[in-house]
UniProtKB/TrEMBL annotation:
Residues 1-10 have a biased composition (Polar residues). SUPFAM superfamilies: 6-phosphogluconate dehydrogenase C-terminal domain-like (SSF48179), NAD(P)-binding Rossmann-fold domains (SSF51735). Gene3D superfamilies: NAD(P)-binding Rossmann-like Domain (3.40.50.720). GO terms for molecular function: arogenate dehydrogenase (NADP+) activity; prephenate dehydrogenase (NAD+) activity; prephenate dehydrogenase (NADP+) activity. The lineage of its organism: Eukaryota, Viridiplantae, Streptophyta, Embryophyta, Tracheophyta. This is Arogenate dehydrogenase 2, chloroplastic. GO terms for biological process: tyrosine biosynthetic process. Keywords: Oxidoreductase. It comes from Zea mays (Maize). Residues 1-41 are annotated as: Disordered. InterPro entries: 6-PGluconate_DH-like_C_sf, NAD(P)-bd_dom_sf, P5C_Rdtase_cat_N, Prephen_DH, TYRAAT1/2, TYRAAT2_C. Residues 69-348 form the Prephenate/arogenate dehydrogenase domain.
Amino acid sequence: MLSSSTSTLRLHQPTRPHPPAAAAGGATHLTSPRRWRGHSPAPLRALDAAQPFDYESRAAGPLEERQRLKIAIVGFGNFGQFLARTFARQGHTLLAHSRTDHSAAASALGAAFFTDPHDLCECHPDVVLLATSILSAEAVLRSLPLHRLRRSTLFADVLSVKEFPRNLLLSSLPPGFDVICTHPMFGPESARDGWDGLPLVFERVRVGDCPARRARADAFLGAFEREGCRMVEMSCAEHDAHAAETQFLTHTVGRMLATLELRSTPVDTRGYETLIRLVDNTCSDSFDLYNGLFMYNKNSTELLNRLEWAMDSVKKRLFDGLHDVLRKQLFEGSPHAPNVSSSSSNVRK
């Protein structure tokens, strides 16, 4: 049976994952302990995609090594490399694939870079992490030779919207594959001093009901827990409803302010400096990301309508106040009002 998360939000405190137990046909294969102690890895060989997981190699070695995974990062751009730095420091084996040649960056992190997705999949990663742009996620996923992966591979994503990748993964992957949707609510700029206290939103969309597969899911999420992330479990639909305000609104306001070409002045206030930083933070991301936040979150259109209504409401209050002042000047004899009778007299003359 497969388990899925409910729509109830749960805050998770960091926990130490339990060691996986062997279960027929369901355990995940992790690399041998020798691989993790800094020795030069043996040449990667293609294995039969239907081969059962190797329980003996998992059983050898201490608990800490059982938590280490072979993670294939698909989409090795700025954000993929940002995640890879932490995964590598934790001791996970890293594989990387991207349409752009990032082999030098991968080598610097100790990751193996593959230009051909067939070669990547034949290495049988424990986790395939989709770190592409929102707009290219579907095309990239469909380019992967899924038949070359193990039949219960764990797929995860780090896209900034969640219902779209959830539905995409469930409709595109074989039913035996596990699925976890995540969104690190931080990036290279906001997390340059570490991930401690920053939220990681996730949903265990589909995880096989056996100890080894549950342990593999725990080990993957544990990579974020160990860095001190605030683990927030909620449904993908809930995430998108919240993210329309916390993320899409922020990016929209930042993009609007950017069109004003704001600059620092000799009399900057703290509030104005905050606006400048908002422009810098949001516009450092590509417009494709912003476009994806709009296109693939059904709550975004409603939020834009609310934002437009809010602006009109503020303008109405301002202009209504201005009209009240003018009416008093014109019709109630305010000292600042123009001399209507005198003007009229001059016209008659």
